[in-house]
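Many introductory courses stop at the sequence. We go one step further.
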Amino acid sequence: MRTLTKSLSRWFDTRAAQPPVEGLDRHRVDWLRCAPFLALHLACFAVIFVGWSWIAVAVAAGLYLVRMFAITAFYHRYFSHRTFRTSRTFQFLMAVVGSAAAQRGPLWWAAHHRHHHNHSDEEPDHHSPGLRGLIFSHMGWFMTDAGFATDDRYVRDWMKFPELRFLDRFDWLVPLALGGALFVIGHALSVVAPGLGTSGWQMVVWGFVISTVVLYHATYTINSLAHSWGSRRFQTGDDSRNNFLLALVTLGEGWHNNHHHWPASARQGFYWWEVDITYYGLRVLAWTRVIRDLRPVPQRVLEAGRS
């Protein structure tokens, strides 16, 4: 009963019953805690009942792109690596958008990613395909007790912001709000513009459920496929790879070997022919001055990569 209560409480409060990080089981999956994650995948089959419309598919695609950008630009390049600077207000705004991707809060995300860079493809890396296989590195690792916990030692710089701690602790609030907003919008469109052929539930299934599941697995490929499939420009001491296809679906994260060689840069496609859509977006934001001080790739690194 105590185990059941602990797993259920973590659906609503990620800090509930969190034991010390040391000694947590890094192999046992907590299936009950992960039931909402699994249910979201099953909910994709609801498309059979709600059908589709161009507006619902367009919303799904748009939310995929917006939330992927928030994950890659802010959860990764900002919160994990601090490759540029911004105001506290915009920092929080983008943390909210990133939270809408339902990939936990910014502190959890950054802590695990920093841990990964410290131990990449070596014990105790949580998600190395060379250590525990492709499937576990893709999604199994965060379903364990060790994958669930946030090691605050890795994010002491962000713990001083109570608004970030709140988002991290109650990481279900923003996704729930997004789903509710999509239902309201879809229902309103069915009333005022029935010719669009959408509905509240159709908008939820496409705009949130399907879009989020696709976003999940596109993001996870960087943990799994980008450490097993692609080319290696730099000898980094791990198995990181560059992969053009993964760079396209993740808006630039597929240049993973580049990133592991020089993670301090806001740019992961180091050369003009390496498409890095997230970096282009960051340049636009820098032009509007909502962010600043984008950290570049040093010239010596670029020259070394050409040799």
